[in-house]
Amino acid sequence: MKNNKAPHYLKNLINSDQDFVTIVENLIANDTQEQAQLDKKDYQTAIISACIGTGGLDLFKKVVADAIKEKVLSVVEIREIVYQSQAYTGLANTYAFVRELSKYLGKNEIKVPKTSEDQDPLSAEVRLAKGQEIQKTLFGTLPKIDEKDPAAVLQKLIRANCYGDFYSRPGLSLRLRELSAFSILVAMGDTKEQLKAHIRANYVAGNEYLDLIKVITAIVPFVGYVKAVNALGVLSLVKQDESVKPVVESKASLPSTKKEATPSKKEEKEATAKTEVKPTEKVRTPVSQNQRNQSKKKH
Questions:
Q1: For the CA atoms of 56, 154, 191, 182, what is the dihedral angle to 10 degrees?
Q2: What are the DSSP calls for 142-182, one per residue?
């Protein structure tokens, strides 16, 4: 058995459940992490989101404490992951996570930088407009809202609240917002239709098919095999669509939709391929029939 760094949040179970700790630590540190090979920021985003999606408050507190100490995710990014989960899991679930994060930050005297959205509430028109812009970016052409339809109120709420209030906030990239949404939906279970939509949205935001397989693999210990296998089944139905292009800078004018400065994995591979030096090939000069005949006469 390899001895990768195991998460410390299982250590309080060592005295009572040593066998359980050994098995789970190996699953997390040596099996899933090693197989997934996720970027640290992506990994922490995924497991924090998975804890929220499953309602695992006790483990969330320990995972967040680790993330803050390691400084891979900023405090603002962690806060945005928690805030955004409200749109997917609802206040009955999110309330406890917001409260515990605030308690931890206060206890450790960690200040969260203020943003313009913290101070100035958005008007109804701005919320709807921002939400529509982000939805168009992620999902393409949007169905027109029929004001006469009683169900239209829900469509407007999703647009204005989920995307206008939360996704438009600065502090977390669009790519990580979609990775978090995907992780939460996997963790919640029974979200097939929503997963389909957000798998495509992840492709647009810059997360590729293989990235999402890695996310599912990484969060297996936190969500269980049933939800992980179901998510893989949905992912297999929505494989990477070559017609889907990642968000370009011109479409990402809003602070929260702007891509991270670092290039995506795909961009890095393409750049490497372009600059890769290929072995020199020998050039064969064509030989005419007369030259062949003269060569035969000499021999």
A1: -70
A2: PPPP-TTSTTHHHHHHIIIIIIIIIITSTTS-HHHHHHHHH
- Work out the mean pLDDT of the chain and round it to a whole number: 82
| 15-52 b/e (C-beta count within 10 Å ≥ 16 → b) | eeeeeebeebbbebbeebbeebebeebbbbbbbbbbbb
Span 33-51, pLDDT tens digits: 888 889 999 999 999 999 9
Best-predicted range by mean pLDDT (10-19, 102-111, 279-288)? 102-111
Kindly tell me if the per-residue pLDDT of 216 is higher than 80: yes
| 8 Å CB contact between 46 and 218 | yes
Predicted local confidence at residue 85, as pLDDT? 98
CATH 1.20.1290.10 fits 37-120+170-269, yes or no: yes
Q: Is the dihedral of CA 170, 173, 174, 176 positive or negative?
A: negative
d(CA 30, CA 1): 8
Domain ranges of the chain: 37-120+170-269
Residues 255, 134 contacting (CB under 8 angstroms): no
Q: How many CA atoms lie within 13 A of 254 on its CB side?
A: 27
**Rounded-to-10 torsion of CA 180, 254, 79, 214:** 20
